[in-house]
Structure formats: C-alpha cells, structure tokens
Amino acid sequence: MANYPDKVFLNGEIIPSTEAKVSVFDRGFLFGDGIYEVMLQINGSYFFGQEHLNRLSECLHKINIEYDVTVLPEILKKLVSVSNLEHKDCLIYIQVTRGIAPRKHAFPLDIEPTVMAYALPFLLPEINDKPISVITQKDFRWHRCDIKMTSLLGNVMANDWAIKNGHFETVFYRDDKITEASHSNIFFVKNDVVYTHPADENILNGITRAIVINLCKKNNIEVQEEAIMQSDLPMVNEAFLTGTSTQIAAINMIDDHVYIKNNKIGPITKKIQQLFLNLKNSQTKRLPQVS
Ligand SMILES: Cc1ncc(COP(=O)(O)O)c(C=O)c1O
User: Fold this and answer.
1) How far apart are CA 237 and CA 189, in angstroms?
2) pTM for the complete prediction?
3) pLDDT per residue over 122-155, tens digit each?
4) Ligand 1 atom 3: the closest Cα is on which residue?
C-alpha cells in the first residue's frame, strides 16, 4: 500500500495494518483525545529518540493519560524489524489516545490507553537546501500549543491553506508576535542575532528547535528566545523553519517580505544547516538505539 505501512503496532501486537481496528468509542476518534510523536531513524539509530520519548511522556502527563513510555524502545525495535527497516532511514509515528469509554467530555481514569505505532521509509536530503515560502495567519488555535495532541484541526486548516495557495507553511501570529508554523517552529536572524519564540504554551517546543538553540550556543551564535513581532518582519535579515521532517528550511518569502533571492541562503542559516548536518552525522554514527 503506497504511503501506508504494511504493519502496525496496536495495543500490544504487531499486525497487518489492514487488520488494525479501533473502536468508534475510542476517545481519540470521538474527541482527538490523545498525544502523538514523530521521530526519525537515521543511519540506523534514532535521532534524539530519548528527547522525543520524553516529550511524549510529558505531554501524556499534561493531559492525565497514564502510560509508561519506557516500554516503547523494545516495541519500536520489533516494529522496525518486522517493517524491514532495520538500519534504514525511516519515520516512526507513535500515538497514544485515552482509550475507549462512553461518550462524555469528562474522562474516566480507569481505562486502558490505545497505543498505535508504525514505521515508514523516509529519506531526507543531507541539507534542506531548497528555500520555501510561507504566509502568515492569526493564530486561531487554542492556548495549549505546547501539547502535541492528535486533534490537529487548526494546524491542518492552516497548512492546507498554505499548500493550496502554493506555499510550504502558514506561520501564526498571536497579539502581533510570531509564534510558530502549523508543523514547524520558526527562527529569525536580525542583526546577527538568532530569535525564536520562547517555549511557552503558545508553541510546541520542537526537538529540532532545542537542537538549533544548543548549536547556536555552542558555536558562538547569539540566540534569544524572544518573539519577533509582525512589525519586525521588514527588518529581519534571514528566517528559517525547523522540524523533524523539515529539518532546517530557509524561508525566501513571508507574505510580501523577500529574504532570499536566486536561492542564495543567508550566511547564518547556512552555517546552522551545516552544523545540524555535522551533528546528524556524528549523533547517528555514535549513539546506540534508545534503550
Ligand atoms: C505545531 C508544531 N510546531 C513545531 C513542530 C516541530 O517539532 P519537532 O522539531 O519536534 O518535529 C511540530 C512538529 O510536528 C509541530 O507540529
């Protein structure tokens, strides 16, 4: 099946995806009441896998779903193996919903979560060297964007609007502050300083975002976790998006503001892309699988 995995892990078993069934009373189906995570296996090991599992655990805790993520590495190892993806680059999707219960907003505490995961081949370029354009939109999502929940309708609508209008992403602003994009975080470079929105409840604290901030700190690039205002956009010199599958994507245009001409990526974005590539190569060669 194109783009569907052949095998999925569902509630303790790895089964053909065509046989995987979930109750219509699952709260994930009824309310989008669940958390998900996406991570990559590159060169045979998980790229910041522990950080992804930690975020999954923290988000589950935030919405009061009890699930011990320490069982996942063993499960994922088997899943990757039966998916014939051992030592291959792939994307791993994990979702944990609250489970099955009669439809009521308030949730029971004594139900088993529904756990699903799959792995798909996923090849990324060494460096994402194709600049992309984005458009802005008022952040109409809720106020807990720090929770990586499966109810992604706001993000889905925003991204669909961007794609249908020929752009890669929609970038949100809230009270004039640029927050993040529909499935990525955003960084700006202004007067040689790198800026990104602080990791509060208005954004998802991306694993790639944290990696980029650390890379800047270790390499004497000044970085501030401070929001750029919409009114700052004409003064910005460079802008880029970060995300697990996006990696680091230079932005050539935000609405009418042009940052890149003739695909010439700005010097700080380019440097960070190179540092990210070096890290990717060293991490994935050095680190064992998460255990
Ligand atoms: C809303 C949002 N912000 C940021 C990100 C980037 O997070 P990460 O770097 O962990 O993939 C994502 C990823 O899915 C996202 O959905």
Assistant:
1) 6
2) 0.96
3) 988 999 999 999 999 999 999 999 999 999 999 9
4) 184
Can you tell me the distance from the alpha carbon of 130 to that of 114, in angstroms, rounded to the nearest whole number?
38
Give me ligand 1 centre to Cα 245, in Å: 9
* Cα 87 to Cα 55: distance, rounded to the nearest angstrom: 24
Q: Is 209 in the pocket of ligand 1 (CB under 6 A)?
A: yes
272 lines ligand 1 (CB under 6 A): no
- CA 2-81-127 angle, to 5 degrees, is 65
Q: Name the residue among 10, 27, 30, 23 with its Cα closest to residue 108.
A: 27
pLDDT value of position 282: 86
For 90-107, how does the pLDDT look when each residue is reduced to its tens digit (9 = 90+)? 999 999 999 999 999 999
How many CB atoms are located within 10 Å of the residue 244 CB?
A: 20
* Cα separations in angstroms, 24 against 106, 152, 178: 17, 19, 38
Rounded to the nearest 5°, which phi and psi values hold at 58? -65, -40
203 Cα–ligand 1 center, Å: 9
DSSP 230-273: GGGGGG--EEEEEETTTEEEEEEEETTEE--STT---HHHHHHH
Catalytic residue among 7, 130, 148, 270: 148
Domains with residue ranges and CATH for the chain? 7-121 (3.30.470.10), 132-282 (3.20.10.10)
Task: Specify whether 138 is catalytic.
Answer: no
8 A C-beta contact, residue 48 and residue 154:
no
Q: How long, in residues, is the chain?
A: 291
